[in-house]
TrEMBL record:
<keyword id="KW-0694">RNA-binding</keyword>
<dbReference type="InterPro" id="IPR036891">
    <property type="entry name" value="Signal_recog_part_SRP54_M_sf"/>
</dbReference>
<protein>
    <recommendedName>
        <fullName>Signal recognition particle protein</fullName>
        <ecNumber>3.6.5.4</ecNumber>
    </recommendedName>
</protein>
<keyword id="KW-0547">Nucleotide-binding</keyword>
<dbReference type="InterPro" id="IPR004125">
    <property type="entry name" value="Signal_recog_particle_SRP54_M"/>
</dbReference>
<dbReference type="InterPro" id="IPR022941">
    <property type="entry name" value="SRP54"/>
</dbReference>
<dbReference type="InterPro" id="IPR003593">
    <property type="entry name" value="AAA+_ATPase"/>
</dbReference>
<comment type="function">
    <text>Involved in targeting and insertion of nascent membrane proteins into the cytoplasmic membrane. Binds to the hydrophobic signal sequence of the ribosome-nascent chain (RNC) as it emerges from the ribosomes. The SRP-RNC complex is then targeted to the cytoplasmic membrane where it interacts with the SRP receptor FtsY. Interaction with FtsY leads to the transfer of the RNC complex to the Sec translocase for insertion into the membrane, the hydrolysis of GTP by both Ffh and FtsY, and the dissociation of the SRP-FtsY complex into the individual components.</text>
</comment>
<comment type="similarity">
    <text>Belongs to the GTP-binding SRP family. SRP54 subfamily.</text>
</comment>
<dbReference type="GO" id="GO:0003924">
    <property type="term" value="F:GTPase activity"/>
</dbReference>
<feature type="binding site">
    <location>
        <begin position="108"/>
        <end position="115"/>
    </location>
    <ligand>
        <name>GTP</name>
    </ligand>
</feature>
<keyword id="KW-0378">Hydrolase</keyword>
<dbReference type="Pfam" id="PF00448">
    <property type="entry name" value="SRP54"/>
</dbReference>
<dbReference type="InterPro" id="IPR013822">
    <property type="entry name" value="Signal_recog_particl_SRP54_hlx"/>
</dbReference>
<dbReference type="GO" id="GO:0048500">
    <property type="term" value="C:signal recognition particle"/>
</dbReference>
<dbReference type="Pfam" id="PF02978">
    <property type="entry name" value="SRP_SPB"/>
</dbReference>
<dbReference type="InterPro" id="IPR004780">
    <property type="entry name" value="SRP"/>
</dbReference>
């Protein structure tokens, strides 16, 4: 999901990473593009504006000077701001359903995924929280919808209220309430009727049902692919019915994703869950950090920056970055990397955070790589002359023997180190060549 937005932001930040320092102008230029990207992703204009303003203020502030690279710092600020906008006080996955039987009203337009989501939530409550759940369909205009819920109920092992022909929605809601009490249910989910668009009759009906059961939660189910329409739908339902949360469906598709951001910013309502497919398990608790990470589409680069900031001198990192971008990576660079890895929780911790390094990480794990190995490798590098470190190609047999002996190790150990240095130099070269796209996607950028 969010492909468009992530690519767009990726392009903007790739450009920034190539610059030494980040001026106010740079930030402004970047923010113009971020703004276009947000609008293209169907984030509403006021939300985009507000978002940009907050990011701009933070990016031109003092924090930037301490960054690994200015671009990475901006990425992190954008990322943090996305999370700030997307996060509320509540725990999205925890519905307020104490005091059984708790009524939960499911509302939304037809085709948004309401019935599917009702069943997904029922399954989740049953399996994760051990709740006894009852579902009832109030969609009297569409018998097929009522049957669909019954079929899903059988499939997931959750009871549904028996269908009685000719009953109106309010009567069904009353019956569900009674049945939930008598049957000792913890929760009952009411799948209300949808319409193709918002109309008075629909609203009046949902309102009447609401007044009969006084729902503990009223969840609006909207198609996440519909962008701003989804936000308008939420505003309408909230104004008339009052909603307590939102479920965004079809987030498995390549939608424009802005809905999540606008939804939260405009309605102030928490996004509780996201639907990620048609299967009954394809429902996830809404996670601001995950969504923000996906919007940016940069693996865990943000975590990498955070960690790097703790241990890296900004200038040193910048110097190294420039060398890497040129494809330069000698034994001094390797030594610096190895020392950082020790500081950052070892090879595994570091590699795991760099998307492009997964393969190398695997090789190192296979080779039984750990901190002891890192220390031994540093000892080998220490045993080299300055010249040798700067130009590892000098290392012929006699030099190798001397260096290995100096570190109390075998030539084969040194050969492994040389191989690793060559691989990393190659990787750096490739990243440098990929430039714009590669540096961030491939890690290290
Ligand atoms: P309702 O009219 O709002 O009750 O919508 P339904 O629950 O009947 O869903 C309409 C269609 O969307 C069905 O084919 C569902 O399988 C599908 N659907 C629901 N949620 C999702 C989702 O998160 N991802 C995908 N890909 N399809 C979904």
């Amino acid at each position: 999901m969010f492909e468009n937005l992530s690519e767009r932001l990726g392009g903007v930040f790739d450009r920034l990473t190539k610059q030494g320092a980040l001026s106010e102008d740079d930030v402004r230029t970047a923010m113009r593009e971020v703004r276009v990207a947000l609008l293209e992703a169907d984030v509403s204009l006021p939300v985009a504006r507000q978002f940009i303003k907050a990011v701009e203020k933070k990016a031109t502030g003092a924090a930037v000077t301490k960054s690994v690279t200015p671009g990475q710092q901006v990425i992190k600020i954008v990322h943090d701001e996305l999370i700030a906008v997307l996060t509320g006080d509540e725990d999205p996955g925890r519905l307020k359903i104490d005091n059984p039987p708790a009524p939960v009203l499911m509302v939304g337009l037809q085709g948004g995924g309401k019935t599917t989501t009702t069943a997904k939530i029922a399954k989740r409550l049953k399996e994760r929280e051990g709740k006894k759940v009852l579902m009832a369909s109030l969609d009297v205009n569409r018998p097929a919808a009522m049957e669909q819920l019954a079929i899903l109920g059988t499939q997931i092992g959750v009871d549904t209220l028996p269908i009685v022909k000719g009953e109106d929605p309010v009567a069904i809601a009353r019956r569900a309430k009674t049945q939930a009490s008598l049957g000792g249910y913890d929760v009952y989910l009411l799948d209300t009727a949808g319409r193709l668009s918002i109309d008075e009759e629909l609203m009046a009906q949902v309102e009447a049902v609401r007044d009969v059961v006084t729902p503990r939660e009223t969840l609006l189910v909207v198609d996440g692919l519909t962008g701003q329409d989804a936000v308008h739908t939420a505003e309408n339902f909230d104004a008339r019915i009052g909603i307590s949360g939102v479920v965004l469906t079809r987030m498995d598709g390549d939608g424009r994703g802005g809905a999540a951001l606008s939804m939260r910013a405009i309605t102030g309502k928490p996004i509780r869950f996201v639907g990620l497919g048609e299967k009954m398990d394809a429902l996830e608790t809404f996670e601001p950090s995950r969504i923000a990470g996906r919007i940016l589409g940069m693996g865990d680069i943000v975590a990498l920056v955070e960690k790097a900031q703790e241990v890296l001198e900004a200038e040193q990192a910048e110097r190294m970055m420039k060398r890497f971008q040129k494809g330069q990576f000698n034994m001094n660079d390797l030594k610096a990397q190895l020392e950082q890895m020790l500081k950052m929780g070892g090879m595994q911790g570091m590699m795991a955070m760099m998307p492009g390094m997964a393969k190398m990480q695997k090789q190192m794990e296979d080779a039984g790589f750990d901190d002891t190995v890192i220390k031994r490798q540093i000892a080998l590098i220490n045993s080299m002359t300055k010249k040798e470190r700067a130009n590892p190609d000098l290392l012929q047999a006699s030099r190798k023997k001397r260096i290995a002996a100096g570190a109390g190790q075998d030539v084969s150990d040194l050969n492994k180190l040389l191989k690793m240095q060559r691989q990393m130099a190659d990787a750096m070269k490739k990243l440098g060549k990929m430039g714009k796209k590669g540096l961030l996607r491939g890690g290290l950028g």
